[in-house]
Structure formats: structure tokens, C-alpha cells
User: Which sequence fits this backbone?
């Protein structure tokens, strides 16, 4: 059996370090916002090249608190992509705002800057690009649009930890970046976790307050906040993995490039790298007209495979009524043809070759 993500192999390398750190945390009994969360936030800020990072309970919360801190609220429109995980749009709904879904670029599968421009109305308050599958969105164009129209730019970096454009990390370009440490993400915890990054003192202060019951000083509450703190135990694990994130992402890129080389001559589309930014391959996603046959061949050999995402957000039951009349031809066409192969920090060349051979078999190649 070949899993989508081999977390066991990754754990074997950091086992001693993690176990020692966890044991120490248990001895110290400092479980909430302890020294490891503080150290991890500092290490993340250094790595990402931002002034502040704030650990929170999940990527979804990171997006939610980022929108709240930026003052996005009832009736405001937030332009985003429908080709993403539901959490991107859920966060917009949590603050009472309206997600306005626009189409994607057919090559990068990221939000299309021209489509953003066309969707701007007097109610538009923010743009929320997703660096989908680990490839940075076109931030040069998107930043320029946001500046020109005075819109907040909130980056969904849940799939792009470590991705960069001209040396700038995703999440360090817009007003605020939101990251997820869900176990299968490029930097994954052993449970839920998330992070907000920003260069603004004011936004950082607000997010710290929101994550901890609206309080700066214990038992004094200034606003209605949430219980959304990054767990101390998760911070121990994340610190061990953050040290190795460059190696992890490099390994993902290596596996992806090998796949693309081995599948290059087949009648399917391998992931497009725009080379503007560094793609960190959270997913390795093909476009293929014979998707069902390829999926079946992989499943028969017990090889992990998945469809991210089969139903774009504007066509989900929860948004169907709200989005009646919304047509996103590129998104819809991609959703009908996309499929993702196993990729992670620990995937051998042999395994990539084995998977590629099964796919080649479908095409008798
Ligand atoms: C994983 C993910 C999220 C949500 O992160 P959680 O930590 O699971 O809450 C949000 N947006 C995108 C694009 C994601 O991939």
C-alpha cells in the first residue's frame, strides 16, 4: 500500500527530539501558551520574514481571525477562488461577509487577477487568494489591484508553507497570511494547528486578543474573543519539523519533477510551474480526461490517489442558492479532470517510478 502522505517515515527521523520535548512539556505542566508556542512563533517569524506570527488552533481559525482583525464584516464582499477547500469560504461567512467566487487561471489553477478586477464592486473589501497546491498565486498583479482599489489582501497559505516569490514567503506579501498545520500539510502537527503572519503591530495585537478570549491581561476582556490557541504539545512537534522544512519541501519538489518527467509524453497535463515563485507541491495534481480509469488502476494496486477538489465551492450544496447563476468555466472544467498522486517529504524515486508505471499502463505506454 502506498499512502498519499507517508507521515510514519517522517516521524522516524524526529522521534527522539519530539519525544524528549513532549516529555519535558508534560513534566513542566505548561500546557497553554507555554515556552514552545512562544519559541515557535519567533522561529516562524524569522523563517517567514515577518514581524509577527500568532499561533492559533487551526488554519480555518487563522483565516477567520485574520478577517476579523482586518475589520471585514457584515455585507462586505471578499473576492476569492471556488477551487479550494471549503474553509477559505467558511471563514468569510463566519464574519458575515459575502464570498465572491471568480475563475482561475487554466495553467496555475490559482485565482485569475483579471477576474478579480472584473468582480470589484463598491462593497468589495478584501481579496483572498489561495496559493493552491503549494504554488504561489500571481501576487505582483493581485497586490497592485488591492493597492489601487484599497482592498485588504489576505493570503490563504494553508497549502504553501515555505513557498516564495523572489525571496518573499507567501503570507509575507499581503496584509496578513494564514497557515494550517493540519497533519498532512507541508508543515504538519500531530493534530490541528494554525498560524497568522503579519507585519502590522495593530493586526498582530488584535489577533492575539481574539485567540485568547478577547483579553490582553488575564481576566480583563476588551472584546468578545475565542478560544483559539496553538497547543503547546503541537508547538513542540512543529519546532522539530520547522528546522527541516526546507529539506521537506525540496523532497516534494524532487518527487514532483520526477513524476512530471516520467509522465511527460502521456495524454494528460502535468502540473504547470510558472517559475515566478517556488512551488512547494502540497499536492501533485494532474488534469486527465480519462481520470476514472487512472484512479481505478491506482486503487487496484492500492496506491493512494484523490480528487482535490471534485466540487468547486460555488456548486456545493451550502452555496448553491447563494451562487445561483455563477458560472466559472475554467474552475468547472478543471474540477472534472483533476486528480492528485501521493506526494510528501518521504517518497522514494522507486515509489514514484512504480506509480508512474501504473499510470503509463492505462495508456499502454
Ligand atoms: C487545510 C486548508 C484550510 C484549513 O486548515 P485547517 O487547519 O484544516 O483548519 C484552509 N484553506 C486551505 C486552502 C486548506 O488547504
Assistant:
Amino acid at each position: 500500500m502506498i499512502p498519499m502522505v507517508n507521515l510514519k517515515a517522517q516521524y522516524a527521523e524526529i522521534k527522539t527530539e519530539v519525544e524528549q520535548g513532549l516529555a519535558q512539556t508534560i513534566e513542566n505542566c505548561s500546557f497553554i501558551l507555554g515556552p514552545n508556542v512562544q519559541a515557535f512563533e519567533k522561529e516562524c517569524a524569522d523563517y517567514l520574514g515577518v514581524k509577527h506570527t500568532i499561533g492559533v488552533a487551526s488554519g480555518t481559525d487563522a483565516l477567520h481571525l485574520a478577517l476579523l482583525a482586518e475589520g471585514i464584516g457584515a455585507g462586505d464582499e471578499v473576492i476569492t477562488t471556488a477551487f479550494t477547500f471549503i474553509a477559505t469560504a467558511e471563514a468569510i461567512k463566519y464574519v458575515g461577509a459575502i464570498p465572491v467566487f471568480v475563475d482561475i487561471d487554466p495553467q496555475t489553477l490559482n485565482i485569475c487577477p483579471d477576474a478579480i478586477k472584473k468582480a470589484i464592486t463598491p462593497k468589495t473589501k478584501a481579496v483572498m487568494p489561495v496559493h493552491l497546491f503549494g504554488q504561489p498565486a500571481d501576487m505582483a498583479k493581485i497586490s497592485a489591484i488591492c493597492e489601487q482599489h484599497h482592498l485588504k489582501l489576505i493570503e490563504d497559505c494553508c497549502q504553501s508553507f515555505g513557498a516564495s516569490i523572489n525571496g518573499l514567503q507567501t503570507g509575507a506579501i499581503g496584509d496578513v497570511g494564514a497557515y494550517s498545520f493540519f497533519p498532512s500539510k507541508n508543515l504538519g502537527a500531530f493534530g490541528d494547528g494554525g498560524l497568522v503572519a503579519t507585519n502590522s503591530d495593530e493586526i498582530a495585537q488584535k489577533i492575539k486578543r481574539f485567540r485568547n478570549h478577547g483579553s490582553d491581561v488575564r481576566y480583563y476582556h476588551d472584546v468578545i474573543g475565542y478560544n483559539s490557541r496553538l497547543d503547546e504539545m503541537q508547538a513542540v512537534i512543529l519546532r522539530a519539523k520547522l528546522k527541516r522544512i526546507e529539506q521537506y519541501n525540496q523532497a516534494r519538489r524532487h518527487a514532483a519533477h520526477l513524476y512530471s518527467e516520467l509522465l511527460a509524453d502521456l495524454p494528460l497535463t502535468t502540473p504547470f510551474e510558472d517559475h515566478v515563485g517556488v512551488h512547494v507541491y502540497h499536492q501533485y495534481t494532474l488534469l486527465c480526461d480519462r481520470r476514472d480509469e487512472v484512479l481505478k488502476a491506482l486503487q487496484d494496486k492500492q496506491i493512494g490517489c484523490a480528487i482535490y477538489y471534485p466540487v468547486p465551492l460555488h456548486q456545493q450544496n451550502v452555496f448553491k442558492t447563494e451562487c445561483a447563476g455563477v458560472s466559472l468555466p475554467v474552475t468547472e472544467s478543471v474540477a472534472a479532470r483533476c486528480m492528485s498522486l501521493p506526494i510528501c517529504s518521504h517518497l522514494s524515486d522507486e515509489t514514484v517510478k512504480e506509480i508512474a508505471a501504473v499510470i503509463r499502463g492505462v495508456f499502454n505506454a
In short: The two ends are 23 Å apart (CA to CA). The pocket of pyridoxal-5'-phosphate is lined by residues 58-60, 84-85, 87-88, 130, 156, 158-159, 180, 182, 192, 194 (CB under 6 Å).
